[in-house]
Amino acid sequence: MMWIKPSILCAPWTESCKESGSTIRASPAWASTTVDSATRVVLDSQESWNGRGAAIRAATSGMYIFRYGSHVGSAPVRHADGESLALVPPACIATPYHTDHAQEETRMRRVIFNQKGGVGKSTIACNLAAISAAEGRKTLVVDLDTQANSTRYLLGDAGAESDPTIADFFQQTLSFALFPKATEEFIHPTPFENLYVMPAHPEMDALQGKLESRYKIYKLREALEEIGDFERVYIDTPPALNFFTRSALIAADRCLIPFDCDDFSLQALYTLLDSVREIKVDHNRRLEVEGIVVNQFQSRARLPQQLVDDLRKEGQPVLDAHISSSVKVRESHTRAKPLIHMAPGHKLSNEFRALHALLDGS
């Protein structure tokens, strides 16, 4: 249980808060918002419209749980006229808000992140997601890279025609809409059962400055928290620590770092780990580095093994499951089929299964 001071929620209501016990009135946009997922109560802005705002109605009693933006709180309710329930304006007291921790533990959001390009972020994200989906979990890939590699990998040529995209999602956060699109509307099914994608778009580059200046860094986390039916979410990131990468790190529970066993990657790794620690301290206390994924590994070459051994001696979280170098990866990209669907018996498919099992404990 965590404790929230509901008085912080008065800001959006400014002129609408009334005496204790009267009906609170709010803007139609707020009044049509779905509140906390534990109750799925929808505020009704149609039946109670009175010209100034919407009288809040609810199909529940007792403690009314509500959310405005990233704020969550609760307040007691009492019966008013007919079936309406009048919300008592939040007092400056701490009110309990219950979270279903058991349900949260069945879900996991992973970000695949490295500031160096060409290390296999999209390949790792999509193949792990494909295995998760094949095992029966409803799985989402969020593509935050304007190159849209994950989008093309999972949707093929149809990825270029996807609409709406995650660029549209972020654009929506910059403007007011009376009836904004729900997060689910930006998610598209793939040809593979249980596997979905939130596709990228080149327009994302042009949005970065506006999103940064208007501090929309938490919007992705809020959106992913609204779609609770996805058991696994894999977030593919651009090869840079930009707005979208930071949004992903703030939204994720775990961070996977691809490492391709060369000296340039080694030097970048330490800077990357510092960046993740900074995000954890400043924005997301639950974020953990789940492990370093050794990718394009050549077991017979001396340098890759030496680099991996050195990292382990330093105490870095190098995962035991390695991904070998193979032309099969490029072939799977071209055919827009993750390896377990294109070549289920191939060595690489088994390596990805081993990595997935190591991460999910299966």
Question: Could you please describe the fold and organization of this structure?
Answer:
There is one protein chain. This protein is α/β, with parallel strands linked by helices and 362 residues long. It folds into two domains: 2-97, no CATH class; 101-360, P-loop containing nucleotide triphosphate hydrolases (Rossmann fold), CATH 3.40.50.300. The chain is built from 13 helices and 14 strands. The strands form four sheets. A seven-stranded mixed sheet has the order 10-11-9-12-8-13-14, with helices on both faces. Strands 4-5-6 form a three-stranded antiparallel sheet, with no helix packed on it. Strands 1-7 form a two-stranded antiparallel sheet. Helix 3 packs parallel to helix 4 (149-155). The chain is globular and about 60 Å long. Residues 1-104 have low confidence and may be disordered.
